[in-house]
Amino acid sequence: MSLPYTQEMLDSVKKVEATRAARMQTELRRMTADEKDDVLQKFHPDYKMDGFEILQMGPNKGEKAPAELAALLQGKSRLDGKEISLQNPDYDVDVLVIGGGGAGSSAAVEAHAAGAKVMIVTKLRLGDANTMMAEGGIQAADKENDSPAQHYLDAMGGGHFTNVPELLQKLVTEGPSAVNWLDHLGVMFDKDENGRMITTHGGGTSRKRMHAAKDYSGADIMRTLRDEVLNRQIPVVDFTAVVELVKDSEGKAAGAVLMNMETKEVYVARAKTVIIATGGAGRMHYQGFPTSNHYGATADGLVLAYRAGARLLYQDTLQYHPTGVAFPAQIFGALVTEKVRSMGAQFVNREGEAYMHPLETRDVSAASVIRECRERGKGVQTPLGQGVWLDSPMIDEIHGKGMLEKRLPGMLRMFGKYDIDMREVPILIYPTLHYQNGGIRISADGMTDVENLYVAGEAVGGIHGRNRLMGNSLLDIIVFGRSAGQHAAAKAKSVEVKDLTIDFVKEFEHEEEEAGIHSSILSPQLLPDYRPEGMKTI
Ligand code: MEZ
Fold first, then answer.
1. Tens digits of residue pLDDT in 70-90
2. How does residue 538 score in pLDDT terms, banded at 50, 70 and 90?
3. What percentage of the chain has pLDDT greater than the value 70?
4. Ligand 1 center to residue 262 CA distance, Å?
5. How many C-beta atoms lie closer than 10 Å to residue 507's C-beta?
6. Alpha helix positions (H), 84-147
7. Best residue for ligand 1 mutational test, from 335, 432, 464 (most atoms within 8 Å of Cβ)
8. What is the overall mean pLDDT for the chain?
9. What is the distance, to the nearest Å, from the Cα of residue 417 to the centroid of all Cα atoms in its chain?
């Protein structure tokens, strides 16, 4: 096994090792509010104005959005004038769930439990979702020294006091029962010898409330939810994307137009209520960043809802996880869980200096990594750019030999495949596009501005304000997923669907013409396109 680090990296590793003992004895100070503001404004990608455009039309006209998202929101319908026969739908259900990740599965399970006829439609397979990729844990204030109020304050501070209060209140108060629900369904949470959940800190938390299943937390939650969907025999139409929503003649959501990803055949689903649970947008690679997201994360739900008249909230704020893999290139941008820092590993620059506290909030941490590389010149050169060290050998030094392997087996294996033993040597990281902080605006019952259209999971905007804390996304997919399923099922009981229509798509296109937008970009995007520029028509 030979370590693939370059000579420059190896020289820098020596400096990291030389300062480790002293660093471990020194308490790192937290940044002041002014220092945080300064680093965010100068280095966080959300503040880089040339990455954004002003929306020219639609419910958020006049507001900014990432340029790539703006192009999709103001893009061209995939139906492109096709006549769709809506009168004899191929599927007729009470609740249609769009998306097969954690939020969609939780919603479907609860709607089914409430007696509704539910169907999930997903463009990939059940479980191909960002839920599967979440590693470090799920927050819930269920220990004696903690409370939902404390959790609320932490998340509100992390979100720069922009979180929608009633959504955040719901998240934190229903947190303990959400984790309990998962525990009972069979998620293999880390527990001590007395069967009590082991909890750790995350960035910006004042209490240890991160519940984990090693560093496979999201994967184990998704495994459990998928089993529950399958056990209940909830129908799942996979490899089938939603390309437009359908309304009824009263303007209420009433189904969707589906497209088989392989054959491109089009189907119509009629539904009394519809839940968007389409997840995030990492595969949009905003501002050229790599991503920790799954292959289908292309902001589809935002596009579908926007065209149908739903307002977005905080669509201009993204989360760049501070610790994406910077080296080796084969796993560039993959997630290095924040749990590595929860367990004590520090950010260390090329000179061996721990230049910041390891558990500042994510936006501040990411901006500080970028500053260390771009302004201070203390990054380590890699084939694809730069990075700083995450001093992973500190974990076994702090907790005893074997702890890293026990709590972070996924990380150990990921780097081990490339002959990097992170118990022995530090690893190189740089921010990676991880999470869509903003999304579709909802009320506390999960409904959007469009009646009978609900949203849950990463496609929602407002729960986390302008910056989410670690572990609050796995929590929101459960809390808001379950709640959307319950509310949508209850609402479906009194809904009488009128004649189906997609006239609103034509009206949207008309509005585009009036705004002088003549886009040829088909949206929703559905999948990323990694072909080189000249080959995109092939
Ligand atoms: O909440 C997340 O994004 C998460 C748990 C990620 C991680 O660092 O593991």
1. 999 999 999 987 889 999 999
2. low
3. 99
4. 32
5. 12
6. 102-113, 130-133
7. 335
8. 97
9. 26
- Check if the beta carbon of residue 139 is closer than 8 Å to that of residue 202: yes
Q: How many CA atoms lie within 13 A of 457 on its CB side?
A: 30
Question: Which pLDDT does position 80 carry in this prediction?
Answer: 84
**535: pLDDT strictly greater than 90:** no
Buried b (16+ CB within 10 A) or exposed e, 186-208: ebebbeeeeeebebbbbbbbebe
- Single-letter amino acid, residue 312: L
Work out the average pLDDT over 293-305. Answer: 98
Mutate to test the pocket of ligand 1, among 338, 361, 463 (most ligand atoms within 8 A of CB): 338
- Tell me if residue 285 is catalytic: no
Contact assessment for residue 340 and residue 411, using Cβ atoms and an 8 Å cutoff: yes
Find how far residue 25's CA is from the centre of its chain.
Answer: 35
Phi, psi values for residue 61, rounded to 5°:
-50, 135
CB 47 within 8 A of CB 160: no
Integer Cα distance of 363 and 369 in angstroms = 10
Superfamily of domain 91-318+436-501: FAD/NAD(P)-binding domain (3.50.50.60)
321 counts as catalytic: yes
Q: What tokens does 275 get?
A: 């839940």
Residue ranges covered by each domain of the chain: 7-30+319-434, 91-318+436-501
Query: How close is the Cα of 137 to the center of ligand 1, in Å?
Result: 6
Question: 481 near 474, Cβ under 8 Å?
Answer: no
Helix axes 217-231, 175-185, angle to 10 degrees: 70
Strands 427-436 and 318-325: antiparallel
Class of domain 7-30+319-434: alpha beta
Ligand 1 pocket residue status of 134, Cβ below 6 Å: yes
Q: Could you give the 3-state DSSP secondary structure of residue 52?
A: strand
Q: 431 preceded by cis ω (within 30°)?
A: no
- Give the pairing type, strands 91-98 and 266-276: parallel
b (16+ CB within 10 A) / e for 429-465: bbbbbbbbbbbbbbeeebbbbbbbbbbbbbbbbbbbb
pTM of this structure: 0.97
Number of CB atoms found within 10 A of residue 387's CB: 27
